[in-house]
Amino acid sequence: MRSMANDLQKNWYSILGAAPSDDLQELKQKYQRLVLMFHPDKQKPGLSEEEADLHLKRFIDVDQAWKVLSNEESRKKFDLQLRAHELKQRWPVDACVTVEDMNWDSENECYSYSCRCGGEFHLEKEEAEDEDSVVCCDTCSLSIEVRRST
Predict the structure, then answer these.
(1) d(Cα 3, Cα 36) in Å, to the nearest integer?
(2) What is the DSSP letter of 17?
């Protein structure tokens, strides 16, 4: 799913009026309420073309949010990206490195970088290809920003 990088521009939880802690049943209820509210076939007569377009866009967003959040694997992926995005915005990074500065671990199929504590920073291959990432050490609380190759 290449669009995951762009998903951070849309917070699927916010679109559903949900929280990451909501269980699947809560998400489903919120989805069903919103999909009925914005479904093109459920619109009131006399709605302006502009309002109808806004409702259609909202309906599409609600449907996409449900598709991402109702699937366990895509939800986990989105949660991780959302968390990394939040960390990048709120958490200072100890260092900035490029993917070239990291070592390729062919056994685990990921990039690694040594932390000063003796631990490791690990970056999945897909994450390295997408966009800049904040990665936490597997031993201590330090984090680094990994920038894509230029």
Answers:
(1) 26
(2) T
